[in-house]
Amino acid sequence: MICVSLGRTRHKHMIAEHRHLAENGVQLVELRLDYIGRAIDLTRLLKDRPTPVVVTNRRREDGGRWMGTEAERQMVLRSAIVAGVEYVDLEADIAGDIPRYGQTKRVVSYHDFDGTPDDLPGLHAEMATMDADVVKIACQATTIADTVRMMEMVRQAKLPTIGICMGEIGMMTRILAGRLGSPFTFASYSTDRTLAPGQLNYKVMRDLYRFDEIDGQTELFGVVADPVAHSHSPLIHNRAFQDAEINARYLPFRVPADDLNVFIDACPRLGIRGISVTIPHKERALAYCTQAEQAATGIGAINTMIFDEEERIGYNTDYRAAMDCINAVYQAGRPADSLPVSHQSRRVLILGAGGVARAIAWGMKQRGAEVTISSRTEERAVQLAHEIGTRSVPWEQRHEVQPQLLVNGTPVGMHPHVDDCPYDPGKLNQLMVVFDTVYNPESTMLIKHARNARSKIITGVDMFVRQAAYQFKLFTGREAPSSRMREAIKEATSPVRLNP
Description:
single chain; alpha/beta; TIM Barrel; Rossmann fold; eight-stranded parallel β-sheet; six-stranded mixed β-sheet; 18 helices; 20 strands
């Protein structure tokens, strides 16, 4: 069950939003009384309440806004219990001072905004002795190991337990709370009213992750990145799973570079069957594979890992998708029975030296193209060119190459810097193919200039959907609903899209 947290400074707004949430199917609401302040009218807030509530009156040291005395704060909590609220949140250090009364269930809580205690099971055992109906531990995750420890503690708990790792690193503890055995998890009313670090809004939890339908049979996948909040992969994969009626979820995993090995080791224990790998992990992740497809080994990077018992199998669907996109644009208009297009001696200029640029450069070099790499960080271009066996030019000299195929593998032009362009529009012409791997927005400034120059184009959405479709098949063994994925990414990157 999802408990939506409400924190408003005025009673009428709290009441109105509570009713709105109930009308939209919310079954439990947390009333954050510390947002209202001292003049709290419990009768007004609780009379004819449309859902059960958790009453919380949080101190400032625990992330709240209470400005009154501690005695006043505890009196509000006692009054809520006397009023018969369904749940009351009591911090562990005061739980012994407030006795049980009536049918109100006691949520005994602990908060740490600096880190996660080393002995979580010991902390939990101590809190369980405080006449708790539910134990709630919310700590800041500083490493992925914190998140893994928290999830294992919740799974092993004998008493109903809510274990939350706050922050982006701990997002999976919120999404998988029900699967771990928690009686409920917390979400915000909307995107702009998050009351705790890493808290997701109710609509995302309900519609994208379908929280209440996650069970022990739900297969888990996700994207590994740092940062990860900007990724649209959870949207398109979860839409695809839903469309295909597959009991699976795709989660965002923020994994710092130094924690990658810890996360990969923990995946089988957490029930994660496959991951997409993106910045900054594509090259490093290859070293953690027990086997990898030939292309991934040649490229020196993966973007997909499948867990099969003890095996960790690496793939590079960026490479497959990019080659499909390039072949398709050159094959267009040719007879269906014609031989596959050849790229022998085709002049290719690749801007950038990251994971996508590496995959495309290797693929085109394997096909006999004359590949040139140019990056704003010249050392990276030189290194990549050396590894692939091609040449590089300084960024300032990129316009001297005169390519037949121009590939932008940099983030230049990506939202929010939509007015930036990595290449001089005056150098584009109708004989060129222009491939921009940026997918947000799809119509980047480079793509707009290429259309004006009558160049053939390949957009980042084309590649993104193709690589995701390949991943979907690796994850599930089934063909991906590519049209549904394309609809989802276009919806997500639309400039008129409203935040949930």
